[in-house]
Amino acid sequence: MTGPAERLDRFMARANAIYYASRDPFADFTTAPEISQMFGEVIGLWAAIAWQLLGCPAPVALLEAGPGRGTLMADALRAIRQAAPGFAAAMQVHLIETSPRLRAAQANRVPAAVWHEDLASVPEQPFILIANEFLDALPIRQFVRRGHGWTERFVAGGTWVEQPVDAAEVPSGRAAGEGDVVEVNEPARGFVAAVANRLCRQPGAALFVDYGPMRSAAGDSLQALANKQPVDPLAMAGVADLTAHVDFADLAAVARHAGAQVQGPQTQGAFLAKLGLFQRMERLARSRPEHATTLMTAAQRLTDPSAMGELFKVLAIRSPACPDLPGLGGSSAQQ
Question: How many domains does the chain have?
Fold first, then answer.
């Protein structure tokens, strides 16, 4: 991917579109649903409780953005059918996915789903949205503090090029010194705003699980993986997975501004523990003792601070009239 200087978000969007259309991303990284069925099952039970808190609307959309191979949704549906048959009867599964390759994999696991290119084509009705490692792949812009002004990063010939930018375009509220990078994810902000606006029109709830800090801060978080190894983000565009940390505090502020209620962010480890992941592990281990060690290892990987437990965060957004959702603290005040 060479040519004239291209703004980073456009470069990243183009590179990831090629990557997801032409490669199996799971050769390069492993997501929580692929680690253990327990993750999707716990998320499915969370959705069932959210449906009850919303007053058991019917029909209701169970919607996933960026569903990968469909593993999370398949595991969630299995748990829902066993524990909440009323919810199972009331729902229609919708998946937001642009990659034909991934849609084919999802169809094998969730054959009754309805697919969408974006949120806009999902019917206006009560909904519960799950988005696991969706926001991190959306393209970011990067601004660099230079002297008393700012530049923006562009890409040309596999190298960085900086161009002057109006300071009004740079996100405020983040202390930055000389050479510091400040990131903004405009598509993530737009998606969360659209979800929050829907939540103010229709009963619903949304759960975002991804990696990033609790609070907004300066820093370069752009990264790339190929064959499960870090690589130069600019050197292997289109053949490596490009991602960046999610700014949860910024997205929470976007949701509040739209009028939705917000809970979190909270660490994934605490969230899964509150929802009973370890109790689920113990039940599965009793029924399948030959898998007990594997189950315990998976639970630790999902929750331990040295693995995914601290790096990954959970943010919930809900309709104004919906009570607090399970697994997180109460509605967070604006910070």
Answer: 2
